[in-house]
Amino acid sequence: MTGRSRWGEPRAEGNRDAPPSVPQVERSHFGGTGTPLVLLHGATSSWRAWRPLLPILERRHRVFAPTLAGHLSGTPLAVDPERVVPAIVDDVEAAMDEIGMGTAHLAGNSLGGWVALELARRGRATSVVALSPAGAWRRPRDLARLLALFRVAGAIGVRPAARRLLAVGPLRDVVLRGVSEHPERLTPAEVGEFVDDLIGCTVLPDLLRGARASGGFAPLRTGCPVLLAWGAKDKILPFARYGRPMIDAVPGADVARLPGVGHVPMPDDPLLVARTILDYAARVDSRGRSDDCLGTG
């Protein structure tokens, strides 16, 4: 054994299901002081997606950023496809128990936004900022489109030349434009991490198979403050096709459109995303947590 598997320490052996060519990375990140804040990344990513925001967020919060189960260095998963999302939520909840975070402000992007909303359903959220959360769609063809996009991404990631090809500016911009509105702002090292995370996401095939079987995100009624914040340039989950159904599924949620950012907004505008999270959490902290922060749907 080359490292400890506790959430508070590096897990150097990584996800044993990942290809051996993928470098081993830390399982999670801790830092900062203040009220607790949990950051949850999207599918095919890792906790490193939040790195541009950490210096800002950690001035006010004790930040825990785990890598989700089934992703690079995360807990391996062996469940039926329709159980993938609940199993990921279970893993985050267990991690919060282990590190002593009974409740926390939650911020999640894409799949991480879905996970954050499910944790709110379980009463683990002080507030939720869901950045273009996955899990809702208006028509079956909207789900089919999304599954096709992720299948293409998975096919690109497993190609041996992916890291080298994506390092080239024009090709990088074409391939990553759907994820980020400003892929030109990504450094070669960040592009390499993107590819490593994509290859290391062993749960992607089951996640895609399970999305259709599970029916997606179930309606949620909670007194917990929820902000659904959608990138105005989101090309993966355009607001009209995926955002409005999510609003219908979370009645009473606050809604914001984030200008100039794409589906993964953190590298596009770290300050805007960090301020969105900080301002919402501060508003909730100023009035205190309500016992109504328990999911009922």
Would you kindly provide a written description of the structure presented here, covering whatever features stand out?
The chain is of the alpha/beta class and 297 residues long. Strands 1-3-2-4-5-6-7 form a 7-stranded mixed β-sheet, with helices on both faces. The longest helix is centred in the middle third of the chain and has 18 residues. It is globular, with a radius of gyration of 18 Å. The N terminus is likely disordered.
Mean pLDDT: 86
Give the number of DSSP strands: 7
Residue stretches low in confidence (pLDDT < 50, at least 5 long) are 1-5, 9-16
The number of helical elements comes to: 10
C-alpha-based Rg, rounded: 18 Å
| Distance N to C terminus | 42 Å
Structural class: alpha/beta
Helical coverage, percent range: 25-40%
Give the overall silhouette: globular
Strand content: 5-15%
Strand order of the largest sheet: 1-3-2-4-5-6-7
SSE pattern, N- to C-terminal: EEHEHEHEHHHHHEHEH
Largest beta-sheet details: 7 strands, mixed
Provide the descriptors you would attach to this structure in a database record.
single chain, 297 residues, alpha/beta, seven-stranded mixed beta sheet, 10 helices, 7 strands, 39% helix, 13% strand
Q: What's the short version?
A:
With 297 residues, the chain is an alpha/beta fold. It has helices at residues 54-57, 84-99, 111-121, 140-157, 162-166, 169-176, 188-200, 204-214, 239-249, 270-287; strands at 28-31, 35-40, 61-66, 104-109, 125-131, 226-231, 254-258. A 7-stranded mixed beta sheet has the order 1-3-2-4-5-6-7, with helices on both faces.
